[in-house]
Amino acid sequence: MKLNKNAQTLLERYLLGVHRALTGKQRDDIRAEIESFLLDNLEERYPQSEEISESQVMGLLHEMGSPAKLAAQFSPQRYLIGPRFFPVYVLVLRIVVPVVLGALTLSLIIRAFTGELSGGAASALDFIASLWNGALMATAFITLVFAILERVNPEEVAKELKDFELFNPSDLPDLSDEDKEPNAVETGFEIVFGVLGLAFFTYLYSSGGHLPIFGAAQDGLAEARFFTDNFMRFLPFMIALSGLEISRSAAVLVQGRRSVLTDWWHICTQVANLVLIIFLLNAFPLFSLEGLLAQPFAADWDAARVGTGVNTGIRVVMALGLFGTLLELCQQLYRQYARQVK
Amino acid sequence: MRRGTIVLAVMSCLRQPQYGYALLSELNEGGLEVGQDTLYPLLRRLEEQGLLDSEWRVEEPRPRRYYQLNPDGEQVLVHLNTEWKKINQVLRRMTNETE
Prior knowledge:
The complex is a heterodimer of chains A (342) and B (99). With 342 residues, chain A is mainly alpha-helical. Chain A contains eleven helices and four strands; from the N terminus they run E-H-H-E-H-H-H-H-H-E-E-H-H-H-H. In chain A, strand 3 and strand 4 (221-225) form a beta hairpin. A three-stranded antiparallel beta sheet of chain B has the order 1-3-2. The longest helix of chain B is centred in the C-terminal third of the chain and has 24 residues, at 71-94. The interface between A and B is medium-sized, with 15 and 18 residues.
């Protein structure tokens, strides 16, 4: 069997399309196998033909479908985020992306009120660009987290399967409060507070540490910087940690239960929180009241004393936070240990 | 159910070396309608699982990739056959069929 020139060209074009749609080390191999399959098919269809025409090849290729479709049939199934995590992933995106966009919009409105923003097309384009950038970054970050979880997951699935084989009903542990279904209201509150925190941190990030002061200036709204560069350096980590905690709470809410994965997820974010607080405690002063003290209503305030007092107060609160986080972390680790021993 | 029977049928056919198109024809002629979109991913999966070996043979009119069960595949096929016979017996009893 022989293909005429046009038929040969058509077949090669099709195979090129298939090759481009394939990925991985085996693409050359798969291409060669598809070529072999197509030629075998033509040979069986037209056993008497000495030369296969372009229209005969065209007929076969129509039946095979587009090169991309054929390539997909020969390739293993690929996905970034699998069906197990996809609903949670979508839920987290639906929460976080609007929050980021809302915070950026709020920042723009306040900047417009305080006169920091010059009007015109440039500002509008700048705003659209920052919205696009914010949404893209939030989506990329969440996707990355879920893609990592997806790839960590097979080991957990394998472990669950192994546990299943060794299953003995008498070995089932008693339910503790932690193992029972999570309280939806409590988890909902966690998400709401997490979202508010995320919105606040995102707003601070976009405003460069400035906050609005209502009723301070003559036109009713002014802006002052409350956070030092030391604090601003850690802000991306705070945003990331807030995102992780919201994702975990959302996962618990959707699944209706805590799992080994969500528990370790919580432990990891607690450890990260702990490290962050330690770094923050070593980075004082984190807050600056200079902007506030420059306002007319604060003219009589003792700047040094107020500044020191606020920073000291916040340092105490953070130290208590450090202690609380450490305590909670120890509890979590103990529970995991007890679960393993059972 | 069909998925499992196709695996069994393909592995049974591959006790002898066969290339994809010939295997497809054999299955279809035997009454098991299988498309290339099912067969080729299955062959790759079985090979990845270490049950099949494959090699390109170039001495024929055109290069063809031949698949054949390896010793691990033979062992799995024996298990699958035993399982299939058990299921077949049970179903025959349940549907009151006679030989």
